[in-house]
Amino acid sequence: MRTTVGIIGGGPAGLLLARLLHRAGIDCVVLESRTREYVEQRQRAGMLEQGTVEALRSCDAAARLDAEGLVHQGIELRFAEERHHLDFPALTGGRTVTIYAQTEIVKDLVALQLAEGPPLLFEAEALAVEKAQSDAPVVRFLHEGREQTLTCDWIAGCDGFHGVAREAFPTATSRTYEHDYPYSWLGILADVPPSCEELIYARGERGFALHSMRSPAVSRLYLQVPNGTDPDDWSDELIWDELSARFAIDADWTLARGPITAKSVTPMRSYVHEPMRHGRLLLAGDAAHIVPPTGAKGLNLAVSDVSVLALALTDLHRTGSTQLLDRYSELCLSRVWQATRFSYDMTRMLHAQPNGDAFESRMQLARLRRITASRHAAAELAANYTGLPLPV
What we know:
- With about 400 residues, the protein is of the alpha+beta class.
- It has a domain at about 5-70 and about 100-175 and about 270-355: FAD/NAD(P)-binding domain.
- It is about 35% helix and about 30% strand.
- It has 12 helices and 20 strands.
- A hairpin with a 6-residue loop joins strand 14 (about 200) and strand 15 (about 210-215).
- Helix 1 packs parallel to helix 6 (about 100-115).
- The longest helix has 23 residues, at about 330-350.
C-alpha cells in the first residue's frame, strides 16, 4: 500500500487528522488495531475546549455535537463547605466549554470516514515504523492474518501511550519527563440526571471529588482513592455515601443517586516526550504526552496537536513549504507544557495529600481563596480551562 500520510491509531486524534487532511485534498490511510465496536465504546474524556469544538465544526464533523452537546458557562469550586462559581464567558471574553463524550466524537468521525473519507482499517495492528528519516517511511502492520506494509511520505503516530510510533524514536535523541501522583481516581457512570448544571470540583480533607455528566440523563463522577484500589472493593452504596460527604456544603443541596453502570480506577500521571518529530514521523496526542484528568486537557491537547499537524501538511501540499512541519514539535510542545503545568497545578491544589501534610493543606486553601477572591487569578484559570489559542 502507498499513501501520502499514514496515520497509526483510529482514536479521536487519528480520525480528526484524517478528516482534516481529506478536506484539504491530501490522501491518507488510518490503521487501527482494535475493532470498530471497541473504539466506539471506549470510555474516555467528555469536556471539550472551545477550540476543540471549533476544530470539529471546521471539518463538518459537529452536527450531533451542536445538537446534543451541553454548553457550560463555568465550573463550581467547593471547599470548606462553601461553593464558588467561576463564570467563564465573563472572565474570558465569551469563551465556554462543551460536554460531549469522546465515544460520541469517535462515532461521528468513524461514520464520516467510512462514508466519504480515505481508508480506515480496523484490526490493523501496527508492528513497527521503519525508515523514519528517509523520503519513504514505512509502517509494518498485521491485517486479515498477514503482514503488510504501508509506504508513506509522512507518518502520524496517534497510537497512544503504548503504541509503536514512539518506539521508533532514537534513544539518544529522546528526552522524557514524568511525574506519578500518589493517588488515583475511582470513576463511575450512573443512570441519573446530573445534580448540578455544571462541573463541581470539590476539595476536602476526605479527598477530592468531581461531579460531571455525559448527558442530561447520565452522570459521571469521580473520587480520589489510593493507588492500587480495586473498584470492586467499593459497593454502590459506599460510593454514593462518600461522594455525598465530599460534596457536602453549608446549604440545601443533595446529590442525586441512581444505578451505577460502570466503575473503573484511573492512575494519575504526567508524561512528556521530546521531541515530537523524528524525520518524517510525527507524534500526536497520548503518544507524546499524558496529563492527569483534573484539568480536562488530554483529548483537547490531542486535537490541538493534529490541528497544527494538519495545517503544516496542508501548507506543504499547497505551497511546497516545510516551514510549519519543521516547527511542529516546537509549536506543539509550547502548548503541551502549559497544559501540563495547568493540570499539575489543579491536581496539587484539589487533592488531599496521603501523608496528611498540614502545611500543604493550608497552601491548597490559600490557592483556592486566591482564585475565588481575585478576578485576575480566576481569569487565568478560566483561560487555561477553556483552552489556550493554537500556537500558529
